[in-house]
Structure formats: structure tokens, C-alpha cells
């Protein structure tokens, strides 16, 4: 039995547009105007794909992205907290410029060797992997011979990709822009069929 998983990074959020770290659900302002257009374009990718279920992080930006796909495909959405945005600790609410100025060493470590340099006060890549990968495998087992979609965040997306196809040391190897989709066939081994961003709006 084969389960096909469409792993999706949410469309552009208002925080993304400001280059701001946003890991608090209560402060999530959802998709930007560009992101809302992206969500409609992204949904078109699934026009001819029958989805058994869509799973979404509880954040507004992921739910809005999932909603666009669900409306077009008439698919049920399940909110799954285990695919939430990772805790970004002392960087929450700060822009990249503010972080570079206040945390220069931590910023360099996070960008050049994130496996060994987690965000100060935030989740490490190993901690993200420990909560996300077992749930990913559970969802695969619960949908034999079906297609499912998981709408999540940059760090979760890349951790799953590294865990299945590489290692956490290669976390920065995946250029996961907003609205990126990885089509993963879960067979005897995971097989990456596609890794694309099917939207034109950037």
C-alpha cells in the first residue's frame, strides 16, 4: 500500500512580508494580500488530485492556506497541533534586521549550522523532529492508498524533508519558499516525486 503525502508550506503571511519571526498563535495575523492570491493559485495545483484529508497547523496562516485547497477540492480539514510553528524563543516578534543587530553570533550560527545552533530559547531541530516525524508516520499509516496534504511551516517542512531524505545537517539545502509543495510517495522507502512552488506570485 502506498500513501502519497503533499507537504505544503503556507503561503506568504503578513509576518513573512515584514521578514518577522512569528511563532505565537495569538499574534498570527494570517496571510498577506499576496499570500491570499498565492493560496488561490496553490489550490489550482490540486484540481485533479483526490485528497483523502488535509491536515493543518493551528496557525491562522496555515489554516487559511488549507481552506483555499479545501474549498476547491471539497476536502475535510483536520487541525493538528504537532505541525505547529516551532517556538522561536527570544526572536518571536522581531524582524530579521533586529535579530541580526541584537543576536549577531546566534544569527550566524542559526544560518550556517542550525542543527547545532538553535534559536535562543527556541526549539532545536532535534526537538522539532521528535514531535513531528512520529505524527507524520502515524498519518501515513492511517491513510493507506490515499493522498493527504499537510500544511505547515518552513522549519517543520525542512525537518521532515531532512529526516526522510537526508539529515538535519542539510536543513538549509531545501529552498522552501512560501507555497512550496513536496509530493512524497511513502512506499517501502520514501520517494520524493516533486518539490516545487506552483504559484506565480512571489
From TrEMBL:
InterPro entries, sorted: His_Pase_superF_clade-1, His_PPase_superfam, PGM_Phosphatase
Top-level division of the source organism's lineage: Archaea
GO molecular function, one term: phosphatase activity
Pfam families assigned to the protein according to its UniProt record, in alphabetical order: His_Phos_1
Entry coiled-coil feature ranges: none
Keywords of this entry: Isomerase
Isomerase listed as a keyword: yes
EC number: 5.4.2.-
Record protein name field: Phosphoglycerate mutase GpmB
Organism placement in taxonomy: Archaea, Candidatus Micrarchaeota, Candidatus Micrarchaeia, Candidatus Anstonellales, Candidatus Bilamarchaeaceae
Gene expressing this chain: gpmB
Amino acid at each position: 500500500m502506498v500513501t502519497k503525502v503533499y507537504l505544503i508550506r503556507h503561503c506568504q503571511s503578513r509576518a513573512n512580508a515584514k521578514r518577522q519571526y512569528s511563532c505565537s498563535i495569538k499574534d498570527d495575523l494570517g496571510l498577506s494580500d499576496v499570500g491570499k492570491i498565492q493560496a488561490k493559485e496553490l489550490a489550482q495545483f490540486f484540481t485533479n488530485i483526490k485528497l483523502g484529508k488535509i491536515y493543518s497547523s493551528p496557525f491562522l496562516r496555515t489554516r487559511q492556506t488549507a481552506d483555499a485547497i479545501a474549498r476547491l477540492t471539497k476536502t475535510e480539514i483536520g487541525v493538528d497541533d504537532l505541525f505547529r510553528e516551532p517556538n522561536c524563543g527570544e526572536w518571536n516578534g522581531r524582524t530579521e534586521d533586529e535579530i541580526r543587530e541584537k543576536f549577531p553570533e546566534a544569527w550566524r550560527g542559526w544560518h550556517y549550522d542550525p542543527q547545532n545552533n538553535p534559536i535562543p530559547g527556541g526549539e532545536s531541530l532535534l526537538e522539532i523532529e521528535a514531535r513531528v516525524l512520529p505524527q507524520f508516520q502515524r498519518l501515513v499509516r492511517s491513510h493507506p492508498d490515499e493522498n493527504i496534504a499537510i500544511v505547515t511551516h518552513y522549519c517543520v517542512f525542512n525537518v521532515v524533508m531532512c529526516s526522510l531524505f537526508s539529515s538535519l545537517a542539510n536543513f538549509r539545502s531545501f529552498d522552501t519558499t512560501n507555497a512550496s509543495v513536496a509530493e512524497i510517495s511513502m512506499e517501502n522507502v520514501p520517494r520524493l516525486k516533486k518539490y516545487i512552488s506552483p504559484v506565480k506570485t512571489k
